[in-house]
């Protein structure tokens, strides 16, 4: 499933070989989507709504979310609870598919840009001014970890497990942790280009970014692996079989492998 501006939702039941287009409220602007263990989907609308869809990607219903201001990221944990982060250092959670929400404010006023659970109890949030938060009790409490850097703003973040994680920032900066966010080390990005999306493919990270660039890790360095015909790439979804779904500028959707084979599956 892919979501985008003007209320567009694209769904595929055959790993990107064909696509169906769903038009929701054209005034919506989707900034993220999450898949839950019960088969449902949740799409985050920047205009303070969370849209809930069924396992087939249909029957969408809008639920209002008052906080955080400027919602930026959404995930669904192993117990089917929704988590949304954004402005005001606010974390919102729902255990009833968005019908009601609880909020927690952590730290000073800052934008929280990513949220991910690596198992039912452990999760991470990254945000403005290098903020990193970790939960070990399923989100009941969030611990502030040492900052990545006061001037660091994460474009994207991904954790492979409770210890290993990566964040990308301005000017192509990529940072890595091997101790669950307690410390971070800068990694070489040979292209020096911004990476807008991160994902885990068969245990290893990959990134996509400006000018259709696709990156893989080789040793401690981020190497340019491929270039697609796009102004930018925003997200990547590995299928686990060597194929990767990428999406980005101008609504392009593409299934690719990193050996150069390419198949354009949609351009909506």
TrEMBL record:
Gene3D superfamilies: YVTN repeat-like/Quinoprotein amine dehydrogenase. InterPro entries: PSII_CF48-like_dom (IPR028203), WD40/YVTN_repeat-like_dom_sf (IPR015943). It holds the Pfam family PSII_BNR. The keyword Cell inner membrane does not apply. The keyword Methyltransferase does not apply. One of its GO terms (cellular component) is photosystem II. Transmembrane segments: none annotated. It comes from the Bacteria. SUPFAM superfamilies: Oligoxyloglucan reducing end-specific cellobiohydrolase. Residues 109-186 form the Photosynthesis system II assembly factor Ycf48/Hcf136-like domain. One of its GO terms (biological process) is photosynthesis. Keywords: Photosynthesis, Photosystem II. This is Photosynthesis system II assembly factor YCF48. The lineage of its organism: Bacteria, Pseudomonadati, Pseudomonadota, Betaproteobacteria, Rhodocyclales.
């Amino acid at each position: 499933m892919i979501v985008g501006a003007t209320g567009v939702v694209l769904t595929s039941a055959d790993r990107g070989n064909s696509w169906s287009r769903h038009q929701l409220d054209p005034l919506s602007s989707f900034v993220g989507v999450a898949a839950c263990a019960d088969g449902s989907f949740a799409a985050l609308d920047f205009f303070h709504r969370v849209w809930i869809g069924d396992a087939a990607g249909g029957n969408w219903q809008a639920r209002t979310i008052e906080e955080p201001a400027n919602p930026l990221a959404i995930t669904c944990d192993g117990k089917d609870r929704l988590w949304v982060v954004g402005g005001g250092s606010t974390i919102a959670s729902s255990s009833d598919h968005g019908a009601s929400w609880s909020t927690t404010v952590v730290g000073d006023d800052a934008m929280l840009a990513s949220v991910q659970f690596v198992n039912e109890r452990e999760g991470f949030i990254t945000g403005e001014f290098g903020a990193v938060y970790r939960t070990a009790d399923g989100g009941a409490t969030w611990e502030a970890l040492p900052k990545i850097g006061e001037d660091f703003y994460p474009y994207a973040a991904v954790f492979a497990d409770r210890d290993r994680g990566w964040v990308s920032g301005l000017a192509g900066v990529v940072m890595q942790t091997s101790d669950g966010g307690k410390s971070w080390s800068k990694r070489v990005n040979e292209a020096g280009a911004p990476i807008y999306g991160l994902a885990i493919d068969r245990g290893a990270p990959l990134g996509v970014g400006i000018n259709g660039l696709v990156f893989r890790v080789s040793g401690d360095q981020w190497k340019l692996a491929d270039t697609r015909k796009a102004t930018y790439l925003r997200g990547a979804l590995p299928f686990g079989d060597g194929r990767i779904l990428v999406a980005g500028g101008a609504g392009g959707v593409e299934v690719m492998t990193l050996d150069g084979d390419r198949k354009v599956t949609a351009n909506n």
